[in-house]
Amino acid sequence: MIGSYYSSLSFFLRTIVLLLFSILNLFNTFASLTPDLCHQDQRDTLLDFKNELKIQKPDEVLDFEGYPMNVTSYPKTDSWTNTNSDCCNWEGVTCDTSSGKVIGLDLSCSCLHGRLEPNTSLFRLQHLQTLNLAYNNFTFSPFPAKFHKLVSLQRLNLSQTSLTGQIPTEILQLTSLVSLDLSSSFSFSPSLLAIESPLFFRLLAKNLRSLRALDMSGVNISFEIPHEVSSMWSLRSLRLEGCNMFGEFPNSVFLIPNLESIRLDHNPNLRGYLPDFLINNSLQILSLVGTSFSGNIPDSIGKLKHLTSLTIQESNFSGKIPSSIGKQLQCCNITEFPEFLRDQANLQTLDISNNKIQGQVPNWLWRLQGLEVLFLSSNSLSGFNGSLNPLPGSQIDVLDLSSNAFQGPLFLPSTVIRYLFASKNNFTGEIPPSVCELTSPSILDLSNNNFNGSIPRCLETQMMTSISDLNLHSNSLTGSLPDIFTNAERLRSIDVSHNRLHGKLPESLTLCSALEVLNVESNEINDTFPFHLSSLQKLQVLVLRSNKLHGMLHHHDSSVNGVWFGFPQLKIIDVSHNDFSGALPSDYFMNWTAITSKKDDDYTQQVSYIGDFHDYGYYTSVVLMNKGVSMAMQRILTIYTAIDFSGNRIHGQVPESIGLLKELHVLNLSRNAFTGHIPSSLANLTALESLDVSQNKLSGEIPPKLGDLSSLGWINVSHNELVGPIPQGTQFQRQNCSSYEGNTGLFGASLKDICGDIRESEIIESSSEEEEEEEEEEKLCWIAAGIGFAPGIVLGLTIGYIVASYKQE
Ligand SMILES: *[C@@H]1O[C@H](CO)[C@@H](O)[C@H](O)[C@H]1NC(C)=O
Ligand SMILES: *[C@@H]1O[C@H](CO)[C@@H](O)[C@H](O)[C@H]1NC(C)=O
Ligand SMILES: *[C@@H]1O[C@H](CO)[C@@H](O)[C@H](O)[C@H]1NC(C)=O
Ligand SMILES: *[C@@H]1O[C@H](CO)[C@@H](O)[C@H](O)[C@H]1NC(C)=O
Ligand SMILES: *[C@@H]1O[C@H](CO)[C@@H](O)[C@H](O)[C@H]1NC(C)=O
Ligand SMILES: *[C@@H]1O[C@H](CO)[C@@H](O)[C@H](O)[C@H]1NC(C)=O
Ligand SMILES: *[C@@H]1O[C@H](CO)[C@@H](O)[C@H](O)[C@H]1NC(C)=O
Questions:
Q1: Residue 454: CB within 6 Å of ligand 2?
Q2: How far does the centroid of ligand 5 lie from the alpha carbon of residue 680, in Å?
Q3: What residues does the Leucine-rich repeat-containing N-terminal plant-type domain cover (predicted)?
Q4: What DSSP string describes 80-126?
């Protein structure tokens, strides 16, 4: 299933992110200097630091929403040369005017690239009070521990530096800090796992008494924030967006007297409510998008004199919004089409999405000659008033009708529409031929409606010239997927999932040289595996789930082109619930290059989404099974990888070459007829988070080395013929008992832990009495345990979840 997402909310968020960014930058402005101050040792240290790193122009920097940030980088250290001896004049360097010691270093956005080593010469600049390294690329090097050596540090900004690993607790020794920014726009760490977050925050509150600004957005906190945070009375700005926080947010934080800005967006599991007592009077910005805050919006909020922005979309507030703050809200609960617009002949863009407008779209709207961009999404509109012929003068270029209650045929007011979003309505009848009259459509999203009939062949012309994304998922379309893709050079994504298409996949798909995503899930396509698509150099996602596909999953003869499979860029393949059969050759996974390794320097590519940045926030999305549930990824991260072959009739051994897929996150081979052992090479898959081989005929032991895979948070080996001990790793102990059931020969102390604490004395350590043991263990295994499942600790999938949950409407 595929959907599209657009909302003006994103624009708003982007704006505030930029705004905040510029506010934080204010902290980092330094005074200029007088010449001839520089100390030799300070200069040498600076040059050493410069030489530790390379300069590399970064690609676009993305904000938390995945939008490009307006960050301009250039190599500041280029001005650091021996010939210009006064290092106090070097760009980004500030010296103390009397002592000449370097007290400030602002190398933000300086194109620095390379590892920040634990022994970096930076730590020799002992007089530093301000250090800003934001927006550089330290290539996922571990967060150096020794920042506490910089004892005078007052402002530290390591935002967007792609440091990884744990945030060292030593940082909490920097008791002079007034501003600490460790945010990263994607939850790629640093994470706090070394020390549990509540303790970290308690120490932080205790030690960093002067802290005024704290930003740890994107850091995986995954715990409750302790109430001690509210003792940080110096705090003015608290930003913890996308931190995967749980539990109840301590609302005593709202009592911090000078707190001006609180941003807790995108923490879906964070509960809380706004207290009814008078919140501190300084609050200017309160943002709770995508949290589980609930209850009423108390009147006390309305009394906040300085409040400029209150953003609460996608949280659970109920009740009435106090009239005192109505004017400050983004959306205004309009229920009727605003008549005054009639006279706005020069109006170019109209965004009245996210209101409660009912009834018909008035005909006069299309006569506004200036109107080019029209957002009507997320209202309760049900139809169009007046003639349903395109109006000759209409210039509408962007039309967003999604998430309304439109019924009947789709009406296109203009022939120059390039971006058409009509998803989540109840449009019926055939896809109107007027779609084929659009002069150069780029995105056509008609998903989640009730269109019937076949996909119009006349779209072939538009395919050739302009269409980049075709989304028809969840309709009632019949017939076959027509052969209209000849020369569809711009086509990036096709989603026709959840329809009733039959027949074969068209040959012309082979010619879509730009295609990245093909999703035909849940149709009735009766064909063999489309190997001819392996010529598509950009195809990253192939979803064929739940069709009538059959035959082998590999070329009969690898000598044809030297590979069994092909598809150089494929990262997500889901062929589950078809009728594929045959055995897989043992070197089957050779040349699955995109899952075998990630390119070291390809940092930005890895933290972006498939489809890159499209106009109007359209992303291709996909639903995949993971950890036993279907996971809706409203955007597909380019680093996400998954192989789902489940529910077919594949037999033979699991190819040993699976061990080559070092970047694989999800592997599902369940419900097939695999025999032989679980390959020990699986232990090489250090990125693996979820492994399901249940319901096969696998025998032998579970390779003990699998116990070392720390990211493997979900394992299911049930209903096979496995024997021997369960591996020792903690991840194995955390599984639900049902992950092991139906294997008569599995045993081990850990199985006892998992499957219930009974008859401890009967656990037999020696393997000499195997028969007896097997019987015993089987009993143990069937007893449900009270151990909850703890999710994997690697963050990759968590991102998927976060994105999925806060984008769901
Ligand atoms: C830091 O340590 C590495 C080895 O771990 C060494 O190669 C490098 O020269 C050291 N750098 C400095 C600045 O001491
Ligand atoms: C399509 O739906 C319309 C009304 O919803 C119906 O009248 C028509 O018969 C349907 N056409 C097909 C081919 O099912
Ligand atoms: C697929 O098509 C073939 C012939 O075209 C037919 O024999 C077969 O029954 C079809 N399979 C299914 C599952 O419908
Ligand atoms: C693997 O696939 C099967 C069948 O499609 C599904 O039931 C199961 O939940 C999947 N396993 C995981 C871990 O998602
Ligand atoms: C697994 O990794 C080890 C060490 O890196 C290597 O020797 C072995 O060949 C790998 N196995 C496979 C199947 O990739
Ligand atoms: C493991 O797989 C079996 C069979 O596929 C299923 O019944 C069981 O619920 C699964 N266990 C978990 C924890 O998902
Ligand atoms: C184990 O999984 C089964 C099915 O997936 C579920 O019904 C049961 O509640 C789970 N047990 C525990 C302890 O999580």
A1: no
A2: 10
A3: 39-58, 76-96
A4: --SSS--GGGSTTEEE-TTT--EEEEE-TTS-EES---TT-GGGG-T
